[in-house]
Specification:
This protein is mainly α. 54% of the residues lie in helices and 0% in strands. The chain has helices at 2-15, 27-42.
Length: 56
């Protein structure tokens, strides 16, 4: 089983395609979005069941 997992991991690494592209960014906006995401993740789950918390 361990060898199978290693093979899957190696396959994923070998087939992972990426391309680095330089682009202009707004650092203040990126920080705002990051902080908003952290606040959301640290917040309480909604009263209704959602996909993320599944009623927990």
């Amino acid at each position: 089983m361990e060898d199978k997992l290693k093979n899957i991991a190696l396959d994923l690494l070998n087939n992972f395609k990426n391309e680095l592209v330089k682009m202009k960014i707004d650092i203040a906006h990126a920080e705002f979005l990051f902080n908003r995401a952290i606040k959301l993740l640290n917040g309480d789950c909604p009263k209704e069941t959602c996909e993320w918390c599944k009623g927990r």
